[in-house]
Amino acid sequence: MSLLIVGSVAFDAIETPFGKIDKIVGGAATFAGLAASYLYNHVNLVSVVGDDFGPDDMSIITSRGINTDGIEVMKGGKSFFWSGRYHNDMNSRDTLVTELNVLADFDPKIPASYQNCDYLLLGNLTPIVQIATLDRLDMKPKLVVLDTMNFWMDIALGDLKKVLRRVDVLTINDAEARQLSGEYSLVKAAEIILQMGPKYLIIKKGEHGALLFGDGQVFSAPALPLADVYDPTGAGDSFAGGFIGYLAKVKTINFTNMKNAVIYGSALASFCVERFGTEKLQNLTSDDIRNRISQFIRLSKFDIND
Amino acid sequence: MSLLIVGSVAFDAIETPFGKIDKIVGGAATFAGLAASYLYNHVNLVSVVGDDFGPDDMSIITSRGINTDGIEVMKGGKSFFWSGRYHNDMNSRDTLVTELNVLADFDPKIPASYQNCDYLLLGNLTPIVQIATLDRLDMKPKLVVLDTMNFWMDIALGDLKKVLRRVDVLTINDAEARQLSGEYSLVKAAEIILQMGPKYLIIKKGEHGALLFGDGQVFSAPALPLADVYDPTGAGDSFAGGFIGYLAKVKTINFTNMKNAVIYGSALASFCVERFGTEKLQNLTSDDIRNRISQFIRLSKFDIND
Predict the structure, then answer these.
(1) CATH number for the domain harbouring residue B170
(2) Taking CA atoms, what residue in B is nearest to A304?
(3) Contact status, residue B45 vs residue B19, Cβ threshold 8 Å
(4) What is the distance between the alpha carbons of residues A220 and B90, in angstroms, rounded to a whole number?
(5) Residue A253 resides in a domain
(6) Which pLDDT band holds residue A248 (cuts at 50, 70, 90)?
(7) Domain range spanning residue A295?
(8) Which candidate from A205, A218, A262 shows the least CB-CB separation from B208?
(9) Sign of the CA dihedral with A66 first, then A44, A2, and A123 last
(10) Domain count, chain A
(11) Which residue is closest to A39 within chain B, CA to CA?
(12) What confidence tens digit (pLDDT) does each residue in A47-69 have?
């Protein structure tokens, strides 16, 4: 029984209207792993870093009890580096620098102790690496969640469609759902995407919440309105980690639990954006999470009976 | 006991990716009145039209049992005319023609039979007309809802701030909330706007739903994801009409009922956009509305208890 997360572990440099940080630990697998660790105890990461990724950097991940045996350290290599500047609206950003470094030749290696995982999160990576991961697992996991982005739709659509046939849940944003399906209406987009393989589709809409499609149903989750969004980096990954972490915890995969998982994912994402980088996700308490979930309940609950 | 709606009754010409209509009955008070009529029986309109607005046009309103004694017909005048073209995304539009015509000198006259109204919806009009309406009512209504738009913030901010001090609920969209408050965060925007007078603020976000702020609480209502949006014209007015119509029906003003009212408003708006102009709002059944409300409940309900 374990949850495997495959994705980037990296350094970010981030500039927002609230400030600037030159080098901070980031990466999809880092955010997803931290978020999942609050809901589930057996989180295993597979990634690759350079030897510039020191013990203090790694401790951000290990201090949450996450297994890093699958994080390969490439001697003489440099870790993936991303630098971005967010605009005032926090919904749009400019990528200033993308240095793939060791991630360019990432060949995911699954430690023997990671085999027989029940839950798999394929973070946003080239579809080739996502396919390789699936191929290297001895058994098909109970649930495979895949995150991707417009970049792979632009340059590797064929591979992306191949891996989509092998996953249970796809998480993308609204613009990506429109691009992948060729439909503007998200209802029509979902119909088309659900025929590509996934049984469930989650459309992430940032400050507007998320939509879950599947089993002939649709669920709309709110985003928590926040006074200050310090840094949106990692919000989508934290969402995915919270989502799959909740399902790993409750074990039963159905639409009811999927809906709750979307709320947990949204809650973890709401913490993520309240501080720079991983800061807020490093030291949450179970009370913090319980209170945040209560906020989501109050935010969206109404009671009509006439 | 009555609901008074003051706003435009007009002709629209509309072009969307689904088709084109040269002349169709529209106007804020028309949409709001039709929407409210499904929830409350004593709906009174105040507006002005030209004598180009014929009996067939008026019957669209009267056939729903709405009182039109307060719709002044200006002899030799032409009705307000608006023409717009919606883009593919249905969220942006170009105004092609705005002919104020008789609306330019609109001087709202309140028939004696309309006095002592309990509920008042001040539709999107120049703040001077909204103030005049309030001045001409013998008694302050139990609940005053005001709709406005960026245009009045641009050219009549002083007057708008005056009328805001006299209303209970303000409905605007997210861009307008940001403009009026000078804050990007909707949480901060709401704090500032609630100090301008209204006790409650509703931020309409179109396909992303609506936020209700007030009583130190916040509620997020989903929008119903639709396969086809034929014509968004009148959606905001239908929302406002459904909202105040529900409150007029249940009579008690508190946050719990406000939340339900937002859901009813959203439901009426979701019908509005499914056909051109007022078409869909002319012939709904109580089953249609009940089923639509059930859809909203299924769309947003989740049950977390751990």
Answers:
(1) 3.40.1190.20
(2) B260
(3) no
(4) 20
(5) yes
(6) very high
(7) 3-300
(8) A205
(9) positive
(10) 1
(11) B306
(12) 999 999 999 999 999 999 999 99
Q: To the nearest 10°, the Cα dihedral for A31, A36, A37, A39? A: 150
Q: Using the structure block, give the residue that is written with the tokens 């002349």.
A: B23
A34 CA to chain B: closest CA distance, Å? Answer: 21
Chain B residues near residue A222 by CB distance under 8 angstroms: 209, 220, 222, 300
Q: Are B226 and B270 in contact (CB under 8 A)?
A: yes
**Do residues A199 and A245 lie in contact, with contact meaning Cβ atoms separated by under 8 Å?**
no
8 Å CB contact of B209 and A222: yes
Supply B226's token pair. 């639709």
For residue B210, being part of any structural domain is answered with: yes
**Domain-embedded: residue B306:** no
Is B293 in Cβ contact with A260 (below 8 Å)?
no
Q: Kindly state the tokens that stand for B179.
A: 């403009």
Question: For residue A210, what is the nearest residue in chain B, using CA coordinates?
Answer: B208
pLDDT tens digit sequence for B208-261: 999 999 999 999 999 999 998 889 999 999 999 999 999 999 999 999 999 999
Q: What percent of chain A has pLDDT over 90?
A: 93
Examine residue B29 and state whether it is found in any structural domain, yes or no. Answer: yes
pLDDT digits (tens, 9 = 90+) for A292-301: 999 999 999 9
Q: What SS3 state is found at B36? A: helix
DSSP letters for B192-218? HHHTSS-SEEEEE-GGG-EEEEETTEE
Mean pLDDT, rounded, for B91-102:
89
The single-letter code of the amino acid at A52 is D
Q: State whether residue B227 sits within 8 Å of chain A by CB.
A: yes
Confidence bin at B305 (pLDDT 50/70/90): confident
For chain A, positions 113-172, list CB contacts with chain B under 8 A. Answer: none
Contacts A205 to B, Cβ<8 Å:
208
Closest Cβ–Cβ partner in A184, A205, A299 for B219: A299
